[in-house]
Amino acid sequence: MRQxxxxxxxxxxxxxxxxIPKTAGSTFSRILRxxxxxxxxxxxxxxxxxxxxxxxxxxxxxxESIVLFTGHAPLVTGIKEADEAPTITIxxxxxxxxxxxxxHVSEGKSPYLLDSFxxxxxxxxxxxxxxxxxxxxxxxxxxxxxxxxxxELAIGSMTPAEILEKALxxxxxxxxxxxxxxxxxxxxxxxxxxxxxxxxxxEYMNKRDTxxxxxxxxxxxxxxxxxxxxxxxxxxxxxDRFVNFVENDADYRRAYESFRVRQKIASPxxxxxxxxxxxxxxxxxxxxxx
Length: 290
Description:
The protein has 290 residues and is an alpha/beta fold. It has helices at residues 25-35, 48-56, 60-65, 80-84, 94-106, 124-128, 138-144, 160-173, 184-195, 218-227, 229-248, 250-273, 278-283, 285-288, and strands spanning 15-18, 40-44, 66-71, 87-91, 177-180. It has a five-stranded parallel β-sheet with strand order 2-3-1-4-5, sandwiched between helices.
């Protein structure tokens, strides 16, 4: 079996986080910022040509100082420095991802959809029938090469089977390391091991308002599954490989169990003191390994 990630820790100057919408969440974004605190970053906005123009317009000294590339862009961005950097990504159960996206739109949090689907008149059936590209197989398409909010680049003439095969090949052979939102802590340990991160203790940030959640009927769920047939197969294959690794690699399991014990202590400490700063680390050296 191929390795889940390249096993040797990478001492890197640059990193690309391929952020698939509604997969990583605020908690991972904060962890990533903490790992690269003080480093210059470039954030993709999801429009390939505009992102390329914005990057090219930066002074050369600024471009050379960029360490972290993040934001919404497909596997190949057209920016050499980003495309050659080690790449990580996080996947999510496709049905959950699409439900989260729909909820996001219904709350008026997607500016480009406000005119067509304002919160006060949001209709779930209409939105599912709208043909919006973020509703259908977005994860596998971004791993093939898909430009959000723009033109399809590489998949226009591909069959579903070809898209699935190419997406999995890119995930396993071109992405340096991937994680799963449903296995969040396990994913953090993989990233830490492969990328040489400091142990990423964290406070959970996802505190959603459950008072205004949409109700999905059976017909909605069947529609979402039909729209994401490729993504479901893509995710299931990636998940099976991930789970097989985390359950059977002895060194990884030891690192994970140690992390779990310390994370249980670290999370409330960070919540009380507002983060794992120098004072907190000094006071709780056992937890943070200082």
